[in-house]
Amino acid sequence: QVQLVESGGGLVQPGGSLRLSCAASGSIFSFNAMSWYRHCQAPGKHELVATINSGGGTNYADSVKGRFSISRDNAKNTVYLQMNSLKPEDTAVYCCVGYRSSSSWWGRGTQVTVSS
Length: 116
Description:
The protein is mostly beta strands. The protein has no helices and eleven strands. The termini are far apart.
């Protein structure tokens, strides 16, 4: 059973940057794709932020395009979310998700707070 553990959240001022990490206990090769969501602990309010597939293709929510970047390091079984030019509205709990066939695995999340 693969477990996903996020880290890298914290308090940052508007305009600042953070890099979130999602470490998998098993190989991320087994996932067809991996995503970052936010507001993931608020039922019905999950917002898909970014996705990276096994071929390295990426997709982003319009609200973060040009500011956020998702990447993966297969050797470290880790997916990253580089967040630049952060805004107060980016404040949320961010979770990573791995997809395999019709199943998904969720991490518990890491809190990001953007405030002066």
